[in-house]
Every structure is written in structure tokens, then in C-alpha cells.
Amino acid sequence: MSVSTPDWVSICAPSSIEPGMAGTVPVEGAPEGNGEIAIFHTIGGEFYALVNKCPHKGGPLSQGIVHGDSVSCPLHNWRISLRSGEALGEDEGCTPTIPLKVEEDLIWLDRAAILTRQAV
Known about the structure:
The chain has one helix spanning 111-117, and strands at residues 8-12, 21-26, 36-41, 47-51, 65-67, 70-72, 79-81, 100-103, 106-110. It is mainly beta.
């Protein structure tokens, strides 16, 4: 069950996403293909949220491999920074990031960012 405040929406407990893995959250009313946010839990214990869509060909980033603070897209192996959403190396493009905080044993996403950044 999610809890919300005017500015933040609770998504899940941090323990529900294993370190080195990702979970997804649907966004109701988002344009087709842009309806998920990926929440990443790094081996180092940090959490990041990005639109679940690679800027290259739209691959589902949540299904990629997390290394440090980046994820490799499962389609064409583009590396995307979890901090900025920017493609790394020689690749160019950016996936929108969603501000996230962990408080009261819950992961919270910024409500305004969810509504404005899901379309890539």
C-alpha cells in the first residue's frame, strides 16, 4: 500500500529491491511505452530512479546489469548513469531521472517529476 504527501509518493520498502537489482513502478496515464519508472538499488546501498527507457532504442533499463552507479541497457549495451541519466562513453542521449528519497523505511518519489518526466 502506498502512502503519499502533496510532494512525494511512497513506492515500496527499500528491502523489496535486492542490491544490484531494479524494480519498476507503473505510471498511470503516461504515453504508451513511457509508463514505467525503474528504481535501482546498487550494491553500495544507494537508490536511484529513472524512466525505464534507454535513450537509444527504448530498451527497458530495469532489465539491464547494474555496475556501480550505472546500468547497461539490455538491448545494445549502452551504459547509462544512474545519477544523471546521461549515456556514458561515446554514446549520446539522456534518460530522465526522478528525485528519490528513502525515509521511514520507504522509498519516496517526487510527485511532480513523475508527472512531468515520464515522456521521453
